[in-house]
Write a structure and sequence with these properties.
alpha/beta
Amino acid sequence: MRYEKIRKFDVSNAPGVRSTLFVTGCTHNCKGCFNKELQDFEAGKVWTQEDEDNFISYVKNDNVVGVNILGGEPMQQVMDDCLPNLLKRIKEETGKNIWLWSGYLLEEILENEKRKNILQYVDVLVDGKFDIGKRNINLKYRGSENQRVIDVKKTLISNSVVIYDFEEIL
């Protein structure tokens, strides 16, 4: 896995203070993508054990309520086990919630074993490609109206898409 940046403290992508990882590599090529430079799979730096340990230390900070994984395309990080291993460690060592943004629909993710392996650690999935024709700057945590903010755990239990309830605190 490769990544471009880490934000130790991030308040712009999901509720509360969070630690954020931006992975590189994406083939969706959405028109109007806000992270076009992260589409290149060779961009950024190679993820190392030191990077993972540092990121985990950020997440363990008492001020951090959760984690954001963006890109690039996190669900295309299937060339190795770096991302699922990181997410597993976050859950085991901190128990904090994980939000992940993907251009894939949930239904597409569930059809691929490696992507499902990543999804098992995710609490909230923002799914769907950015659609510039449906862009809406008033939406919470997503850029276009076709994208869904999904409560993954409730969805997997009910076997039906459950939209995240912003009134609930994760």
